[in-house]
Amino acid sequence: MSKYECLDVTAPLPKVLLVRFNRPAVLNAVNTAMGRELLSLFNEVNSAPVGETSCVVLTGSGDRAFCVGGDLKERNGMTAEQWQAQRVVFKQYNLAMERCPVPVICAVNGLALGVGAEMGLRTEFSYAADHATFGFPEINRGFMPGSGGTQRFARLVGEARAKEVLLTGESFSAADALAWGVVNKVLPREEVLPACLAVAEKLSSCPSDAVRTAKLCIHHGLQADIETGLVIEALGQQRLAASPDRLEGIAAFVEKRAPKWSQ
């Protein structure tokens, strides 16, 4: 794994990457350099052999923030051309993250605003600290969310609620995020990361090919009508029928032993 300046990347568990946004002095705001590093990181994960990495956990450095969005100090005075050039970098890392074949989960340890809130919408699921705050303040800065916020948030919470939040720029609490389905769990601050790592460890104990295939089927099936989704599911099931892990999983069940996965 490459060395990074804006990211702190460790492997606290076998096949699990813990990625901390590492700009705590600016509440982990994403600048162009961090965008390039996120692109590099996910390109590495995406191109690695199956089984090398089973899960990626994202969190923020420091006690205050997960990520407060794009770095507005860096953007101050940018020309339209410079802004668009940065957007290319951001779009590329967004796509690399979206296309990651292994589960990506967020441990939201504080403020999650703008791009930070969009991270959780783009990944598999999130756990949040009970003091965390979410929001899309872009409208109050003269622009709007551009990393999927207007689309994923609206699909998740409904058009009326999305318009209320996105058009006013008002923030919302971790309790609201849980009630609206933005996060899966709300926990005390000190329990969020351990809970995410426990889930990551559980995912890493499952057969890699089955997890990757199921992730693809769920995501792409939800982008289609139910009939097309069922076809996608059938293709995934058919693909796994030839997997040695399917034979091993059934044999282990019958023989009452732990399975030995191929990856």
Question: Would you kindly provide a written description of the structure presented here, covering whatever features stand out?
Answer:
This protein is α/β, with parallel strands linked by helices and 263 residues long. It folds into two domains: 7-204, 2-enoyl-CoA Hydratase, Chain A, domain 1; 208-255, Orthogonal Bundle (Lyase 2-enoyl-coa Hydratase, Chain  A, domain 2). The protein is 50% helix and 16% strand. It has a six-stranded mixed sheet, sandwiched between helices. Helix 1 (32-47) links the parallel strand 2 (16-21) and strand 3. The longest helix has 19 residues, at 80-98. The radius of gyration is 19 Å and the shape is globular. The relative contact order is 0.12.
Question: How is this structure best summarized?
Answer:
The protein has helices spanning 32-47, 72-75, 80-98, 115-122, 149-157, 159-168, 174-179, 189-204, 208-222, 226-241, 244-255; strands at residues 7-13, 16-21, 55-60, 65-67, 104-108, 111-113, 125-129, 133-135, 172-173, 185-187. By secondary structure, the chain is of the alpha/beta class.
List its traits:
263 residues; 2-enoyl-CoA Hydratase, Chain A, domain 1; 50% helix; 2 domains; 10 strands; Lyase 2-enoyl-coa Hydratase, Chain  A, domain 2; four-stranded mixed β-sheet; single chain; six-stranded mixed β-sheet; alpha/beta; 11 helices; 16% strand
